[in-house]
Amino acid sequence: MASSASISRPRFRCFDPTNSYPATPDHPRYFSSAVSPSSSSSSSSSSPRENGFGDTMAISNNSEPKIVTGEGGYVLEDVPHLVDYIPDLPTYPNPLQNNPSYSVVKQYFVNADDTVAQKIVVHKDSPRGTHFRRSGPRQKVYFESDEVHACIVTCGGLCPGLNTVIRELVCGLTHMYHVKRILGIEGGYRGFYARNTVPITPKVVNDIHKRGGTILGTSRGGHDTSKIVDSIQDRGINQVYVIGGDGTQRGAAVIFEEIRRRGLKVAVAGIPKTIDNDIPVIDKSFGFDSAVEEAQRAINAAHVEAESVENGIGVVKLMGRYSGFIAMYATLASRDVDCCLIPESPFYLEGPGGLYEYIEKRLKEDGHIVIVVAEGAGEVLLSESLLKDEQDASGNKLLQDVGLWLSQNIKDYFSKQRKMNITLKYIDPTYMIRAIPGNASDNVYCTLLAHSAIHGAMAGYTGFTVGPVNGRHAYIPFCRVTERQNKVVITDRMWARLLSSTNQPSFLDPKMVAKKVAETKKEDTEAEAQLI
Ligand SMILES: Nc1ncnc2c1ncn2[C@@H]1O[C@H](COP(=O)(O)OP(=O)(O)OP(=O)(O)O)[C@@H](O)[C@H]1O
Ligand SMILES: O=P(O)(O)OC[C@H]1O[C@](O)(CO)[C@@H](O)[C@@H]1O
Ligand SMILES: [Mg+2]
C-alpha cells in the first residue's frame, strides 16, 4: 500500500538540538554529548560499536536519542546499543558466516553505514531528511549463542500473523543463531510476574502460523515496570521480544529505560502489531492486509443482502478505533461500497450534503446502498446522544457501537420521517476478522519482521522497533513509533480516490478543506525546519 501518512507530522519531541555540535562536511556528528566507549574483546574481534561513519561513537547515558547529521540536511535517528551503557562488551563473529543456507548469499551482511530514508520524494534543494539504521545481520554479534536466553510476549488485541511472528522468532533464533533457551511469557505484560512461562522450541511452534490468535495469550493493562524487569533479571533473560501495538511499544520503551538504568545486558526489541495500521513511520503493520482481505467477505454479504431487496441497506462495521485504514482499503478493494465513514472524516446525518440525503439518492438511483463504518467514526455524533466515558484496562477509550447506532438512526429516519419501506442489515464482523491466521503476504512479512528483530538484538541494538520504511526494513527508536498515531489524511490523494470511487459526499465544506490543507502544510514546514 502507499506509505501511510499521518495528520500530525514528526515533531521530534525526542530530539534535543541543544546538545548539538556542528557537523563538518565529511564528519557527521552525534548530537548527544560524546563519551568514547572503551572496548574490549574476549574472542575474535575487538572494536567500538560501528557507527557506520568511521566516526567516534557518541554515548548518551540517558534516554537522549542518538542523532547523527551529515551533508545536505542528512539526519540519522539511530537506536540505542548495549555499549552505550555497558562499554566493555566483547563481540563474536556472526554464526551466520558458517550457516550453509546463507553461505552462497553474496553480501549477506548489512553494510555498516546503510541507512533507510524516511522521505523518498525530495526536491533539488530540500534537505535529505530523517534516516533510520537499516536492519539485518551484522558481521559481529554481542551475544554468544549459548549465552542467549530470549523471551517473547504478545500484548494488546489479537491480530492475524501473531503466531507467525512467534514461530519465526523461535525458528530464526534457533536455526540462524543456535539459541537454545527461548521462553514464552503467557498472557501479556502481566505474565512476566503473575503467570507461567513456557519454554518454546521450533517443534512446539511448527504449525502455529496456520492458527489465529496467539499461542501465548495476551492482555490489556497490567504493565508494572519494576516487577517486569525484576522478572527479566531473576530469570536471566537477556533478549526481550515484545509483539504489540502502540501501547505495547510504549510499555517496551519503559522496560528498556529501566533495563538501561539498572545497567543490564538485555536487548529489548519491539515488533509492531495492529490491524488498525495506526503505527506511524512504518509502511504498514502486519495483519492489516489479512484484515482488509477478510473484510471483503462481510462487505460482499452486505451487498448481496442489500441488492436482493427493495430499498436494501447494508451496514458493515470494521475495526479502527482512531484510524480508518481498514475501512478505507476494504472500501477501495471492494468497489461495492457506496459510502465509507472513518474517524478522520467527520460526517453529519441531516440536511443538504448529509448522509440521509445521500442514502435516499442511492436508493432512488440503484435501489440499494452499502455503507462501511469504522468503529471510531462519528464519535462526536455518538457522544452527543449517548454519554459514556469508559476505558479498557490499558486506558483506551471504550467506544459505543457506531454500527448499531447508525443502523437505528437510518431506520428511524426513513420509516418515520420519510415514510419509506427500507430493509437494513447490519453486519459486525470485527472479531471474526481479527481472529483469522495471517494471509500469505502477511506471513512472509511477519518472517522479515521477526528476522530483523533477531539480527538487531544479536548485534547488540536495543530499545528499537522493527519495520519497513519505504520498502526497506529498519530499526526505529521507540519514541518515533509512540509519539503519535498514524491516521488517514483526508487531504491526501488516497482519500480523494475513495471519494471518487464511492461518489459519497465529502461531508466537508470548502472552508474546512482549506483549513485542513493549511494545517498539513504548516506541520510539514515545521517538521522540515527542525531537520535543518
Ligand atoms: N504508556 C504505557 N506505559 C507502559 N505500558 C503501557 C502503556 N500504554 C500501554 N501499555 C501496556 O501495553 C499493553 C498493550 O496496550 P494496549 O492494550 O493499548 O494495546 P496495544 O499494544 O496498543 O495494541 P492494540 O491497540 O493494537 O490492540 C498493556 O499491557 C498496557 O498496560
Ligand atoms: O475488544 P478488544 O479486545 O479490547 O479490542 C478492540 C480494539 O482492538 C483493536 O482492534 C486494535 O487491536 C481496535 O480497533 C479495537 O477497538
Ligand atoms: Mg493501541
UniProtKB/TrEMBL annotation:
Cofactor: Mg(2+)
Binding annotation for ATP: 157, 220-221, 245-248
InterPro entries noted in UniProt: ATP_PFK, PFKA, Phosphofructokinase_dom, PKF_sf, PyroP-dep_PFK_TP0108
Annotated control of activity: Allosterically activated by AMP.
Transmembrane segments annotated in the record for this chain: none
Catalyzed chemical reaction(s): beta-D-fructose 6-phosphate + ATP = beta-D-fructose 1,6-bisphosphate + ADP + H(+)
Localization of this protein: Cytoplasm
Binding site for Mg(2+): 246
GO terms (BP aspect): fructose 6-phosphate metabolic process
Binding-site residues for substrate, renumbered to this chain: 274-276, 319-321, 375, 431-434
EC number per UniProt: 2.7.1.11
Site entry (Important for substrate specificity), positions: 247
Keyword match Lipid biosynthesis: no
Gene3D superfamilies in the cross-refs: 3.40.50.450
Active-site residues annotated for this sequence: 276 (proton acceptor)
Biased amino acid composition, Low complexity: 32-47
GO cellular component: cytoplasm
Record pathway: Carbohydrate degradation; glycolysis; D-glyceraldehyde 3-phosphate and glycerone phosphate from D-glucose: step 3/4
Similarity-based family: Belongs to the phosphofructokinase type A (PFKA) family. PPi-dependent PFK group II subfamily. Atypical ATP-dependent clade 'X' sub-subfamily.
Function per UniProt: Catalyzes the phosphorylation of D-fructose 6-phosphate to fructose 1,6-bisphosphate by ATP, the first committing step of glycolysis.
Name of the molecule in the record: ATP-dependent 6-phosphofructokinase
